[in-house]
């Protein structure tokens, strides 16, 4: 038990030092191994092992003169982080405005590791409402977040759809061909409506959010209890969602 504890602590410490090395390279472009060791108080052999690992993964790159600077993977991570932070900052007041107009729960979701991930939300002040949680994940193949899947390149889309689709309720689509046909329909109409696909008590409507280059970066959503949601409510949500999506997209540069 103590050995496992010690091993866990060593692993965490190694990651901690690795982050220190990466941050040092980020703050001091074209820094040398000796300087990194002096800056963070670690041995050169240990830092060199970390740098070689990070170099292999594209987080840092070594110049012909032996100095280090950030690699392309780090740049991709930085761009993604910046975009997501901007996305949440821009979306939050618009989600609140949307939620107040719809008087229902609103969310902003992105694709993360093959799932939809909630990164922002608003809940109205009413006793019975859909509970949203930042960080909660859902399958891309069920519910209105299929809208995120619908706009992917066909080849990427095929890779993201598992051979066996998880069934969440009796309304969940579990046939692959039927799902692909549904995704084509979603892309044509520009929104997705789910009646009880994730939870039988839930109606969910999602519309894509566009980045500056026209790619779909996120989905904005209204979720409501099924017992009080009529088709006329769904139609109203679609109009409100399209307006909210346009506002977020415009502020992202689209």
From TrEMBL:
One of its GO terms (molecular function) is DNA-binding transcription factor activity. PROSITE patterns: HTH_ICLR (PS51077), ICLR_ED (PS51078). GO terms for biological process: negative regulation of DNA-templated transcription. SUPFAM superfamilies: GAF domain-like, Winged helix' DNA-binding domain. Residues 12-72 form the HTH iclR-type domain. Residues 73-254 form the IclR-ED domain. Keywords: DNA-binding, Transcription, Transcription regulation. This is HTH-type transcriptional regulator KipR.
